[in-house]
Every structure is written in C-alpha cells, then in structure tokens.
Amino acid sequence: MVSASKEKGIRFHFPRATTAAIRTAVLNAFGNHLEARRVELQESASRLQPSGSDIDTEWWSSMKQVARGLEEKGEPLRSMGTIVYDS
C-alpha cells in the first residue's frame, strides 16, 4: 500500500513478511519511474510548492540513508513512518 501526505511525503507500507530484496526492488522501480517522468513532475510540483523548496529531495535522500544504514547493520526495514488515524 502507498500513502502520501504533505508532512511525510510518499510512504510505502509493506507486509511484515516482505523481504528486504522485494522492498528494495519496489523502491528502485518507483525511483526509476519518477526519474523517467522527472521533467513532468518538476513542472507539476513547481505549481504546488514555493520556488527553491527542496523538501521532497531532502525526504527521499533521508529515506535512502535510513534504509542503507539498517541494511548495513543487517536489520530489516520495518517502516518509514507511522500512520495515525484520527477519529
């Protein structure tokens, strides 16, 4: 499952049994998809956020660093955020 919010960006929610290899493959495929559509997405994003804002780039960079750090330690990536439902 995928969710998106302004605060936390795009998040992938994998079942607990999902292996690191599958998570990595999904994230890489999504990154490749975004790269292929970079110009279109940048034009669209420029209409939505202030000029000079690197919030999205910083979030993705941070996400990659966290995932790599966990993998180097041999720990599985369990989540990249928490979904909170307000009632």
List keywords for this structure.
9% strand; two-stranded antiparallel sheet; 51% helix; single chain; mainly alpha; 87 residues; elongated
Protein model, in words:
This protein is mostly helical and 87 residues long. The protein has one domain (2-72). The protein has helices at residues 20-36, 38-46, 55-72, and strands spanning 2-5, 9-12. A two-stranded antiparallel sheet has the order 1-2. It is elongated. The model has no long low-confidence stretch (mean pLDDT 79).
Q: What is the element layout, followed by pairings?
A:
Layout: E1 2-5, E2 9-12, H1 20-36, H2 38-46, H3 55-72
Antiparallel strand pairs: 1-2
Explain briefly what this protein structure is.
The protein has 87 residues and is mostly helical.
Give the CA-based shape: elongated
What is the number of domains? 1
Number of helices: 3
Question: Strand order within the widest sheet?
Answer: 1-2
Number of strands: 2
Q: Termini separation (Å)?
A: 21 Å
- Residues in helices, as a percent range: 40-55%
How much strand content do the residues show? 5-15%
Helix/strand class: mainly alpha
